[in-house]
Design goal:
2 helices; single chain; 91 residues; three-stranded mixed beta sheet
């Protein structure tokens, strides 16, 4: 189920403060965040977010196509190393 339109998109308050500060100072350093649940807003476009994936911070450059999605969608948590059957077939 999606979030109510009346409430608006969810973004952690500390993340909004960091984005506003980066926009005001035109800082190009990545904004480090653990908030994978926050929604990407149009204010984030052009910034680089370092989103935590459980092990490290993955740099994510925000573009127009990402608006409305969650930050966690762009920092994968699992490393795909292939299927076991594919490795057997190659030998």
């Amino acid at each position: 189920m999606t979030r109510s339109v009346k409430k608006g998109p969810f973004v952690d308050a500390y993340l909004i403060k960091k984005v506003e500060a980066a926009k005001a100072s035109s800082d190009k350093r990545p904004i480090k965040t653990w908030s994978r649940r926050s929604t990407v807003l149009p204010d984030f476009i052009g910034l680089t977010m370092a989103v935590h994936n459980g092990r490290q911070h993955v740099p994510v450059y925000v573009t127009e196509n990402m608006v409305g999605h969650k930050l966690g969608e762009f920092a994968l948590t699992r490393t795909f190393k292939g299927h076991a059957a594919d490795k057997k077939a190659k030998k």
